[in-house]
Design goal:
Layout (H helix, E strand, L loop, with lengths): L21 H13 L8 H22 L7 H29 L1 H5 L1 H23 L4 H26 L2 H4 L2 H11 L7 H4 L4 H38 L10
């Protein structure tokens, strides 16, 4: 199998005298997230994106410099050069990224199956390491994290209600109402909102950003619960049958 899995030389292994902690579990789950069948970005790809971002930032800052400090013709040359470097960097980075992950798009089902095989192998390793800890510790932490997950679900329901089922639709609807009468070139009219409207739009966007953060935390709690539950279940005996 053409699989690239991050080496876990420094992966924490439980010792007989070690106590199970959520920090230990976090590090093992983080290794599960970092596991991938696709090669990691190379140095050329990383630096091409960095150079593109740097060139874009320099170009924007140069265009903002007042004319009395920097002549217009010089600023134009710098901006055009930065634009060329930016385009080359992003195009090169995109080509290398597409070449690295092309199989994900040409063979999506096979790539997904191979990725699940790699993740499942690491999942089994984490469960085996968890079983090295005393069963009482695993049960205690399972009860705690399950209670914490239930509390988070209730809190998110009070904060977001049914909005979390609608996804970004309310935010898109608010933006549509704001820009429905806007025409190209009328930049002043696009942002002609009062303090009340600006605060409402900002609050709505901030609320959804916080929601995504909470969803990430909840997914991590779900993973902890699933691993602890699997570690408590006794493994099936090996009958030796093929």
């Amino acid at each position: 199998m053409d699989m690239h899995v991050q080496a876990e030389v420094d992966a924490p292994r439980p010792r007989s005298t070690e106590e199970l902690t959520f920090q230990w579990l976090y590090r093992r789950v983080q290794g599960l997230i970092d596991t991938s069948i696709y090669p990691k970005p190379g140095r050329v790809e990383n630096w091409s994106v960095r150079v593109g971002v740097g060139a874009a930032a320099i170009g924007v800052l140069t265009s903002l410099v007042p004319g009395r400090w920097l002549p217009g013709d010089v600023a134009l040359i710098v901006v055009v050069a930065c634009l060329v470097v930016e385009c080359v960097g992003f195009v090169l980075g995109g080509i290398l990224a597409a070449r690295r992950e092309i199989r994900q798009y040409t063979q999506p089902r096979l790539s997904h199956a191979m990725e699940m095989d790699g993740e499942f192998a690491h999942w089994q390793e984490v469960i085996a390491d968890l079983r090295a800890f005393p069963r009482a510790q695993r049960q205690q932490r399972l009860r705690y994290v399950s209670s914490l997950r239930t509390s988070m679900i209730d809190s998110m329901g009070l904060m977001y209600g049914g909005l979390q089922r609608l996804g970004p639709c309310p935010l898109l609807l608010a933006l549509y109402l704001q820009f429905r009468g806007w025409k190209w070139g009328e930049w002043g009219a696009a942002f002609d909102v009062g303090w009340t409207g600006a605060l409402l739009i900002f609050g709505l966007a901030l609320l959804y950003l916080l929601g995504w953060v909470l969803i990430g935390q909840r997914v991590r709690l779900d993973t902890y619960v699933a691993l602890l539950e699997a570690s408590i279940q006794e493994p099936e005996p090996d009958t030796g049958l093929q």
